[in-house]
């Protein structure tokens, strides 16, 4: 309904009839309400032109257009929403003149010179506003003569102390009345059929329910923006399913409802979608909520044990989204790829399977449970979530969206770029890695583990790796240097292990893990880059079948050592390492990484390393023990 052009008589008549039909027995009503119900009208007699002119003369202003049009139909109103019981007509409207005593506090709050202009514009509202509330539940309704919009409309400000927020602004009186009609619907929908009240069904509810059905179909056909517009309107009227459907669109990056949907065990989506999301801090979802009461068998005997298992898995980071069917098979396949860093391929599998996804009920339009899966959720970048929303599914058809581009840049040189492993940083970070040929990622601990039987962790976020492998550690030592390596696939036939928080490089005591990593006969390449320290450093060493092939180390324009048969494309001089300075070193390191990537056909998955979860383990030391007379340091935190 267009608040600026609608038919006032039709609008007010419909509102009155809907209100009358929603009332219970006459005995439960006040005399005024009983009379209004009987005559099916919440208004009073129309104001005459003389009444409107007299009002303008008394107040010193001609009233804004939509308020005047209202007065010509009804000179006042009862039950404007749920908290304004009587709304002023030509005789009751009066200047508020800060009779509530609120002006001083609000003006001080709003008057900050550094505050937004729209906030500072409210200064003086309590003194200048025209008060329209006559009887209310501590709710003020003020027309603002200094907030004038197109066509001469005055903004309406509504405030109640129990809302604990700034006054709500409506651009016109008509817009305010439409919102109050919607508020009436929200409240009535919430108690529909309760305590013997008649069913709340009328032309408005039927029209909005039809809009929800249309929105559901549009969403499943990939037209999520159209669906969101319909659902936002239906939500204002409190229609069932509108918030649930809109919430799913919002979870995947589209327009969304306010607040966060709460699960209920009666919903078929409870165990697969609602509870896991409820307990997960997923992208854009804020902090997880406490769902422990769902695991109480006295409250929910049928689902408590399953809920407890889900909450435990979410807490431990081991939860797995299991939607079932053909889409579920694709989810399992994608997760297997994603946990080894193949995030682009994993997304392609999910994207291809979205059309066969099936909803679990009429309030289900998207597989938002993916966002609770710790391994798969990082795949769903903003562009991919929108692509998912735009993909027809659930048995509906429509045009397929343009595929979102891959997220991983390919190659290795991005490691040397600003923010490479630490998005948002203005400079390159430090790293060390080992690339191993002919060995699967899960086999790396057997070659490089810090002790016999070293095992891979479950997939972890980058910032959880140290806490998992070294819980409670309060000391460090320069005696050894065991790396915490996140692992995955580095291309056809190659695996990687990478540490993005290495200790300082030790020229004298370095023992390259390339020999141990290549023990099964394939090649191994070790790269160590330091750009985030005072002196930039770059090291490469390679081995095959346990035999060293070549190595070189450069530090700020100086070649510290070089051995073996260096490939021509890795000669430090031509790469530019003989020029001092951080910028020259960074450019040379990028060229060296490109050369390694091209020569061996390897790449690292940036999305998995920066946002995803990968398996990890503690490696053997990258330095030898100190020899006789060589000092080492132990540092502890008391």
Mean pLDDT: 92
- Model regions low in confidence, pLDDT < 50 over at least 5 residues: none
How is the largest sheet built, in terms of strand order? 17-16-15-14-9-13-12-19
How does the helix and strand content classify structurally? alpha+beta
Integer-rounded radius of gyration? 34 Å
- Outline type: elongated
- Assign a percent range to the helix content: 25-40%
Main sheet characteristics: 8 strands, antiparallel
**N→C terminal distance:** 67 Å
The total of helices stands at 22
Structure description:
The chain has 638 residues and is α+β, with helices and mostly antiparallel strands. The chain is built from 22 helices and 20 strands. Strands 17-16-15-14-9-13-12-19 form an 8-stranded antiparallel β-sheet. Strands 3-4-6-7-8 form a 5-stranded antiparallel β-sheet. The protein has a 3-stranded antiparallel β-sheet with strand order 1-2-5. Helix 10 (224-236) crosses helix 11 (242-251) and helix 14 packs antiparallel against helix 15. The protein is elongated, with a radius of gyration of 34 Å.
Topology:
Blueprint: H1 8-22, H2 31-39, H3 49-59, H4 65-73, E1 77-80, E2 84-87, E3 94-95, H5 103-110, H6 117-120, H7 125-128, E4 130-131, E5 133-136, E6 139-148, E7 154-160, E8 168-170, H8 173-190, H9 203-220, H10 224-236, H11 242-251, H12 270-278, H13 304-316, H14 325-338, H15 343-353, H16 382-389, E9 431-437, H17 444-448, E10 460-461, H18 465-469, E11 475-477, E12 482-491, E13 494-499, H19 514-517, E14 523-530, E15 537-544, E16 547-555, E17 558-564, H20 572-575, H21 582-600, H22 606-610, E18 613-614, E19 616-621, E20 634-636
Helix pairs in contact: 9-10, 10-11, 14-15
């Amino acid at each position: 309904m267009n608040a600026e052009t609608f038919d006032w008589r039709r609008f007010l008549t419909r509102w009155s009839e809907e209100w009358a039909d929603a009332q219970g027995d006459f005995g439960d009503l006040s005399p005024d309400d009983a009379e209004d119900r009987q005559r099916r009208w919440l208004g009073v007699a129309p104001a005459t032109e003389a009444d409107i002119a007299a009002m303008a003369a008394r107040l010193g202003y001609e009233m804004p257009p939509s308020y005047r049009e209202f007065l010509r139909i009804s000179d006042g109103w009862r039950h404007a929403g749920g908290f304004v019981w009587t709304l002023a007509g030509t005789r009751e409207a009066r200047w508020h003149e800060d009779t509530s005593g609120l002006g001083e506090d609000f003006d001080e709050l709003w008057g900050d010179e550094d505050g937004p202009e729209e906030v500072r514009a409210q200064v003086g509202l309590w003194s200048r506003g025209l008060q329209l509330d006559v009887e209310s539940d501590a709710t003020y309704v003020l027309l603002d003569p200094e907030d004038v919009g197109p066509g001469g409309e005055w903004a309406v400000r509504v405030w109640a102390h129990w809302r604990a927020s700034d006054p709500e602004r409506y651009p016109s009186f008509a817009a305010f009345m439409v919102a109050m009609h919607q508020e009436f619907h929200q409240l009535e929908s919430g108690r529909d059929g309760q305590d013997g009240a008649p069913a709340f069904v009328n032309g408005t509810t039927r029209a909005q329910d039809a809009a929800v059905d249309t929105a559901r179909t549009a969403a499943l056909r990939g037209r999520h923006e159209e669906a969101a517009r319909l659902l936002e309107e239906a939500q204002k009227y409190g229609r069932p399913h509108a918030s649930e459907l809109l919430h799913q669109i919002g979870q995947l990056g589209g327009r969304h409802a306010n607040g966060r949907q709460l699960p209920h065990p009666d919903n078929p989506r409870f165990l697969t979608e609602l509870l896991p999301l409820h307990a997960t801090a997923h992208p854009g979802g804020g902090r997880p909520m406490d769902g422990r009461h769902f695991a109480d068998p006295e409250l929910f005997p049928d689902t408590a044990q399953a809920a407890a298992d889900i909450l435990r898995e979410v807490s431990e980071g081991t939860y797995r989204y299991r939607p079932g069917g053909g889409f579920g098979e694709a989810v399992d396949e994608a997760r297997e790829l994603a946990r080894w860093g193949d995030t682009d391929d994993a997304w392609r599998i999910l994207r291809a399977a979205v059309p066969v996804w099936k909803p679990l009920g009429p309030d289900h339009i998207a597989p938002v449970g993916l966002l609770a899966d710790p391994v798969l959720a990082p795949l769903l970048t903003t562009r991919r979530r929108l692509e998912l929303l735009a993909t027809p599914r659930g048995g509906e058809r429509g045009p397929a969206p343009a595929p979102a581009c891959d997220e991983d840049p390919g190659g290795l040189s991005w490691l040397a770029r600003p923010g490479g492993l630490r998005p948002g940083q203005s400079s390159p970070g430090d790293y060390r890695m080992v690339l191993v040929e002919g060995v699967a990622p899960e086999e790396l601990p057997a070659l490089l583990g810090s002790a016999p039987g070293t095992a891979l962790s479950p997939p972890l976020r980058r910032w959880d790796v140290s806490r998992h492998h070294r819980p409670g550690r309060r000391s460090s030592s320069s005696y050894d240097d065991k790396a915490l390596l996140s692992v995955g696939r580095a291309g056809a036939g190659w695996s990687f292990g990478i540490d993005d928080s290495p200790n300082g490089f030790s020229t004298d005591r370095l023992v390259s893990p390339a020999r141990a990593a290549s023990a099964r006969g394939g090649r191994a390449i070790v790269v160590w880059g330091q750009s985030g320290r005072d002196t930039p450093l770059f090291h490469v060493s390679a081995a095959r079948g346990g035999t060293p092939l070549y190595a070189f180390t450069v530090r700020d324009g100086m070649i510290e050592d070089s051995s073996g048969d260096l490939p021509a494309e890795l000669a430090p001089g031509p790469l530019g390492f003989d020029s001092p300075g951080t910028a020259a070193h960074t450019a040379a390191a990028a060229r060296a990484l490109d050369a390694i990537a091209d020569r061996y056909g390897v790449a690292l998955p940036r999305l998995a390393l920066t946002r995803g979860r990968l398996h990890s383990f503690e490696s053997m030391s990258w330095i030898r023990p100190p020899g006789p007379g060589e000092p080492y340091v132990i540092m502890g935190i008391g």
